[in-house]
Write a structure and sequence with these properties.
Layout: E1 3-13, H1 20-27, E2 31-34, E3 40-44, H2 49-55, E4 61-72, H3 80-94
């Protein structure tokens, strides 16, 4: 109830000239977020995931991964101490072999 089911595409630019905003608009993505180490996370409607994946290379991006996932509707901001505590909890959950994916509603 607190998450949107979305397509998530992680892509890296092939050149310095690749513009994530233009690529997102032209490829049909709903939104984009700058990611780690120059990668960009493109957010799509679940029905548009494949089409956006196929369109991104024409705008100078190489798709690294594409999957269905969940994005928080109301992200929560935590102070440093709270964030540290939550991250330790999430690491403990992630260490369990039975856990495949964990989605959290944290901002930033």
């Amino acid at each position: 109830w607190d998450f949107n089911h979305v397509g998530m595409i992680e892509a890296t630019p092939n050149t310095q000239d690749a513009d994530a905003e233009i690529a997102a608009i032209e490829a049909g993505a709903q939104d984009f977020e700058p990611g780690d180490e120059g990668a960009t996370l493109f957010i799509t409607d679940i029905t548009d995931l494949d089409a956006v994946c196929r369109a991104l290379p024409a705008f100078g991006f190489t798709v690294q991964s594409a999957k269905l996932g969940y994005q928080a509707k109301n992200p929560v901001t935590l102070n440093d101490a709270e964030r540290e505590e939550v991250e330790a909890f999430l690491e403990a959950i992630d260490a369990d072999d039975d856990v495949q994916n964990v989605y959290v509603g944290l901002a930033g």
